[in-house]
Specification:
Blueprint (H helix, E strand, L loop, with lengths): L2 E4 L2 E4 L1 E3 L2 E3 L6 E5 L6 E6 L3 H18 L4 H30 L3 H18 L2 H4 L4 E6 L2 E9 L2 E5 L7 H12 L3 E5 L6 H13 L6 E3 L4 H9 L3 E7 L2 H13 L3 E5 L4 E5 L5 H13 L9 E7 L6 H9 L19 H16 L3 E4 L18 E4 L6 H4 L6 E7 L2 H10 L2 E2 L1 E5 L3 H10 L4 E4 L15 E2 L2 E2 L6 H7 L1 E9 L18
Parallel strand pairs: 9-10, 9-12, 10-11, 12-13, 14-15, 14-20, 15-18, 17-18, 20-21
Antiparallel strand pairs: 1-2, 3-4, 5-6, 7-8, 8-24, 13-23, 16-17, 19-22
Helix pairs in contact: 2-3, 2-6, 3-5, 7-8, 9-10
């Protein structure tokens, strides 16, 4: 991996114009194993000059890359996906060490990104324009889907493989060049994926990597040569990125915070539903923007609470590297303290703490950022544990009497990332999917993230910008449509004379 060693500590490099370079930054951050607090490496907060150099390299490379035949771009993606498959277990080990996920979940993180790379291999048909012959006398009209230039991506800590793979493969296969800023908390696995992209044949300057915090983000959002910004992360940062980049004339897609509800009807398959709720709420320690963090039990389904609690109690909390682990650590000590504070607020505001994960003990990993599965009942919609995205292994339970009440409750929440309904009634499912005001709906599916043939379609407070990542929508985002209206004349064509009207003849 492209790191250097200084005073016994690895330092992560920047990728600029095809070369891995040591940053001249004055500010560095430790990359810490969240289960052990071991410092794995140090990551630089790139200087303004380094960001400018990365963008300049992308701008220079764009001139040739945009004219690279689509088949050549596609073949690079074919090789890239093969390399990811070959090295996925190795990268997953790095991902687990720096992020805390279990090995299986880390491999899943990589696989869901790999699916997008595989979809990028279809760019020959995805980027097709349209054509209509003879729209007027001898006039044809057609559209071209052309790249837009230098694009940038800002990715979060919770999916250091999947989210970068949502972004740069689709951007560059469309003919753009790219500057990627991974999360400063766990960039090592992202860097390994970028190394594979270079090995697959991505030319110098087409893909660049800079590291850093707010200053680097702001530099990307305001740089005159960057045409589009893709962001996944918190609502606060996403709103800032959307507003700042938008003010500087850039396209922006910002996938942000969430409060995802699972509505459970009493006719649902009991065992399957309970398993789904527990897995979606506590998997990845709840650090998923699509995690199920609210269960809405309808009518007699409220009687399932004891079984829900019993199932959650069986989950094993341990380091992600340990076999049999269900719930790993949170990403940082700060994240743990925030989650503990929100649990405390739930108790103070009168919710019933059915299962308390605050004092979980993990032998051999006493310094880890662990919070065990935590379950609240008796929750109301004005409590902080309901209004805020906890981003930890905490599930809150609300009860209502009818499906209509459940739909109204979900629709009142300002977020709109994902929701699910558990039922065996087709009529109820059809009503729910029609009336719910949430971008992604699961029917007996707890985390309804669509496959890459479709697009990620969060809505309302969970998304800014009208085009989502991957699928057909992201091809629209990373290209511009040029419409050509053409007429050709034979040498012996009749001259119609001067036409001063707007009509085509």
């Amino acid at each position: 991996m492209n790191v250097s060693v200084t005073a016994g500590i690895q330092t992560v490099k920047l990728l600029i114009d095809g070369e891995w370079v040591q940053s001249q930054a004055s500010e560095w951050r430790d990359i810490v194993n969240p289960a052990t607090q071991q410092v794995l490496a140090k990551v630089p907060f790139a200087t303004q000059a380094e960001v400018d150099a990365a963008v300049a390299a992308a701008q220079k490379a764009y001139v040739g890359w945009r004219n690279t035949p689509v088949g050549a771009r596609m073949r690079i993606m074919l090789k890239f996906q093969a390399l990811i498959r070959e090295h996925s277990k190795r990268i997953a080990q790095t991902l687990s060490a720096e992020q805390g996920k279990t090995q299986a979940d880390a491999e899943g993180d990589i696989f869901r990104g790999l699916e997008v790379v595989e979809h990028a291999c279809s760019i020959g048909s995805l980027q097709m324009g349209e054509f209509v012959e003879n729209v007027a006398g001898g006039v044809d009209t057609y559209t071209l889907r052309q790249p837009i230039g230098v694009c940038a991506g800002i990715t979060p800590f919770n999916f250091p493989a999947m989210i970068p793979l949502w972004m740069f493969p689709m951007a560059i296969v469309c003919g753009n060049t790219f500057v990627l800023k991974p999360s400063e908390q766990d960039p090592l696995s992202t860097v390994q994926l970028v190394e594979l992209a270079l090995e697959a044949g991505v030319p110098p300057g087409v893909l660049n990597v800079v590291h850093g915090g707010k200053d680097v983000v702001d530099a990307l959002c305001t740089h005159a040569d960057i045409k589009a910004i893709s962001f996944v992360g918190s609502t606060a940062v996403g709103t800032h990125v959307y507003n700042l980049a938008g003010q500087h004339g850039k396209r922006v897609q910002a996938m942000m915070g969430a409060k995802n509800h699972a509505v459970v009807l009493p006719d649902a398959n009991r065992e399957q539903t309970l398993n789904a709720l527990v897995g979606a709420a506590f998997g990845a320690a709840g650090q998923r923007c699509m995690a199920t963090s609210v269960a809405v039990l309808v009518g007699a389904a409220k009687q399932w609470l004891p079984e829900l609690k019993a199932l959650a109690q069986k989950l094993k909390v341990n380091a992600g590297s340990e076999p049999g682990t269900d719930v790993g650590p949170l990403i940082s000590r700060q994240a743990k303290q925030r989650v503990l504070g929100l649990i405390d607020s739930g108790v103070k505001e009168g919710a019933i703490l059915e299962l308390d994960g605050r004092e979980v003990n993990v032998p051999g990993f006493e310094h880890g950022n662990f919070v065990g599965p935590t379950l609240f009942s008796g929750v109301t919609t004005d409590m902080q544990i309901y209004t805020q995205e906890i981003f930890g292994p905490v599930l809150v339970v609300l009860t209502v009497d009818t499906l209509d009440e459940a739909i109204a409750l979900v629709n009142r929440n300002p977020f709109g990332n994902g929701t699910g309904l558990f039922t065996q009634s087709g009529a109820a499912a059809r009503k729910f999917q029609s009336e719910i005001d949430v971008g992604q709906v699961g029917i007996n599916i707890p985390i309804p993230v669509p496959v890459p043939f479709f697009s990620f379609t969060g809505s309302r407070g969970s998304k800014l910008g009208d085009l989502g990542p991957y699928g057909k929508q992201v091809v629209q985002f990373y290209t511009q449509t040029k419409t050509v209206t053409a007429r050709w004349f034979d040498d012996d064509s009749v001259n119609d004379g001067v036409n001063t009207t707007i009509n085509l003849r």
